[in-house]
Design brief:
28% of the residues lie in helices and 36% in strands. It is α+β, with helices and mostly antiparallel strands. The protein has two domains: 30 residues; 70 residues, OB fold (Dihydrolipoamide Acetyltransferase, E2P), CATH 2.40.50.
Length: 102
């Protein structure tokens, strides 16, 4: 009985570790300066603005990216944004990662 309970606990712990590892590795390429305490997400949609800027939609976040904001190269082929909340529903970009040309 004790062995069965211990085995179940080990299986659950391993499963949870695998879930955590998969989540961490998906974003392990974000630099610390971008994600350390910030909200970093894959971008769902990008609206390109007439002034050359972008409005990135990432989950509930809408982040305005100015035209000359320095962008990094995404390592997974998707656009990503890291931002800090500066007011209710207002985010300031910290880092932007865009897919490169292949």
């Amino acid at each position: 009985m004790v062995r069965v309970a211990l085995l179940k606990a080990v299986v659950v712990a391993l499963f949870l570790m695998l879930l955590g590892t998969e989540h961490a590795s998906a974003h392990s390429w974000y630099p610390d300066r971008c994600c350390n305490g910030h909200d970093c997400r894959k971008v769902d949609k990008i609206d390109y603005l007439a002034d050359g800027g972008m409005l990135m939609h990432a989950g509930p976040m809408r982040v305005f990216i100015p035209r000359y904001f320095v962008q990094g190269l995404s390592e997974d082929g998707d656009a990503h944004v890291c931002a800090v909340s500066i007011a209710v529903d207002v985010y300031m970009p910290v880092c932007v990662f865009m897919p490169g040309l292949i």
